[in-house]
Description:
The protein is mainly alpha-helical. It is built from eleven helices and five strands. The strands form two sheets. Strands 1-3-2 form a three-stranded antiparallel beta sheet. Strands 4-5 form a two-stranded antiparallel ribbon. A hairpin with a 4-residue loop joins strand 4 and strand 5.
Amino acid sequence: MDIPTASPTALDALSVAVRRVAFAVLTERDSATTVDALASAVASRASRPAASGHAADEARRSLYHVHLPMLGETGAVTFDPKSGLVAAADDPPFDEAWIRRLVIDHPDPEYDPILDALASARRQAVLYELFTGGAATPEDLAAAVAAHERGGADTLETVRRVVGLSLAHTHLPLLADVGLVAGDSTAGTMRAGQTSWRSDPWVGLSPIGEWAAVE
């Protein structure tokens, strides 16, 4: 069975506050702007801005060398390093209501870990299982995730083992670090952790709202 999934590419690209703010600024403008002007706007919207000049200089460097190239690779913006001009793409891949709500509501860096944790179809599948089915053992999660990834078909033990290793060594620890899952050492099970983010408006508007949003 396919699980409704919020684009991991979009969540990864927007998992850094500077990129969310920059994307929000660019989508509000009708024409291209300079990196300097964008940096000033980003610095002014920072949740805890430093001295304005220093913040703008830091934003300009990080935008030019890191964040705009990454957004450009996704097709969300057009960026010309030679001219220093940047604009929202005419047909951005992130032109959806839930993404617009996300970048407007959450410019703060404290939200970065949530988006980073969700920026994986496999981790979303783990959360789906825990939200809809309750606590589960890591082995049961591996079997369910493997089945989801293969269209619900029976999966070989070797496939379940490979998925289980990736959950144990990468995905479950990351989700646990952020608090999205918690373990019960006595029962040997995993359960859903903190769920306050599930009430955020973007979740209800997104594809995962069907199973993640709190009604």
